[in-house]
User: Fold these one by one.
Assistant:
Number 1:
Amino acid sequence: MNIVYFVIGNNVVIHMQVEFSICTILSQIGNEDTIYVVTDTPAMYCNLPHVVTIPITDECIKEWRGKHDFFWRVKIKVLQHIAQISPNKAIIYLDGDTYLHGNLTEIKALLNNNHGMMHLDEGCPSEMKERSLSMWQTVNGKTYAGVTIGTQHHMWNAGVVAIPASLASKATDMALTICDCMLDEGSEPVTVEQYALSIALYECADHLIAADKWIGHYWHYKYYWSSYIAKFFVLSYRKNLSLDQQIDFIRKTNLRMVHRWILIKRTFAKLTGQIY
């Protein structure tokens, strides 16, 4: 399996999130697995096992943004690039604010059975508000890449995108075409790449499954998870833990329980107006 991250910029907090996510993968990774980090700061990841960095330049990012200069089109291009350089492996793309808390072997088995995955089913954009609804009203009933957009095409959260090996090229090519066609229509660009990936996986895979059973995605709780991750790395440094010891600690930690405690902290903060 190819596990893929895309991260640019010098924000240390984001790099800590990505490294922590990678460590959760390393706690279960197999010898046949490769972690690709597509980044403009490859030195941040050069000493991690199983990690192959793919340096990316500003010029490449500009090209991958496309003629409509849509930044998140780059996510599809990253997936397409991995499918091209390693065509015989399943792909799982992860945003930096994710962590593996389930069994990676179960994910591999589902992908081997031609199932696709994204983080969560958010419903049909026709039932959404504001910009997502505006996007839907622009593209509903239109045909792109041989697919006529309808209410069967739900919006799935793209913090996780997992594609079977046999579908990697087909699904990423279809997603890119759909994305570009929707942008050509003048569609609201806020979630276009997410919807394009959702449609492509719905059409290509036998089933599209929510990945939250195995992978957490804390985009609503970044402040609290960032604090937890910073504490983890600071304590690891102070205790002089090796990378193997850090990974073993993560392996033995119930990350679902960590997230429950974070939910409690966030709820308390909202009720009291205090942040801890």
Number 2:
Amino acid sequence: MKNTSPQKAPLTADDQAHFDSLLPAESFNRRAFIATAVGAGFALATQPIAAQTVIKTDSEGLLAGEVMVPAADRELPGYRAMPAGGANLPVVLVVHEIFGVHEYIRDVCRRLAKAGYLALAVDMYIRHGETAKMSSVMDIMAGPVAASSDAEHLADLDACAAWAAKNGGDPQRLGVTGFCRGGRTTWLYAAHNPKVKAAVAWYGTLDGAPTARQPKYPIDVAGQIKPPVLGLYAGKDQGITADQVEDMRSGLAKAGSKSQIHVYPDAPHAFHADYRSSYRKEAAEDGWKRMLEWLRQNGV
């Protein structure tokens, strides 16, 4: 059943899972050195990166690079990758974790572009700070993440969809995918925008105590989700319980949704994040294949 009791901890379970997995075992100076040596382009708070597992996708045959996307109140810095010379391409909006549009998210965009998509990610915390340049996860959570709102994020994704439609994308083939906190936003956006054809949410928080800035969670809007959403979750996630996953499945089923949730029993949270120790190659690769097939089967 849905737990409506107030949380006493300052962090949500999702936030705590992030924090626990990123607690540094080294001094800041050591981390800063590693960032310069092998982690350039990755968010500072994620250092040291697991360099031996990082996937590097080249931009050969792609139009890839930084862009500015007009939103309601400002331009948002972001990253776009698409097949060079492509037109009327299917679109996938990529929703980042709390670390902004750092190298991992950019590489995800290039991977999608290699599969034929116009992939676009913008920094949705930028109004409140540049999280990629912040060295402390706690500072990120207490600062930009706490100050941002779901309403901002949903509006920013609307702006991304509009920008993509004017820059080589097909508005009739709109998809969205997101990781961790971005996975939570993916579920919410699927309920928000009826033009979304399909979505894939990677281990996004499903339930929690509502706040003014985050008034609803995916479980609360399960009945409003029209496009099919594929949820990719971890059996050993310390922040997302098996009961929450089952509650979400139940809510989707009651609404007659075609959405599905697949759980990798032995994987931890953030199993797709190849730059982190949580990366699990088998689950990550299988999830990626499932994502591409899901998008194609559902019109993206």
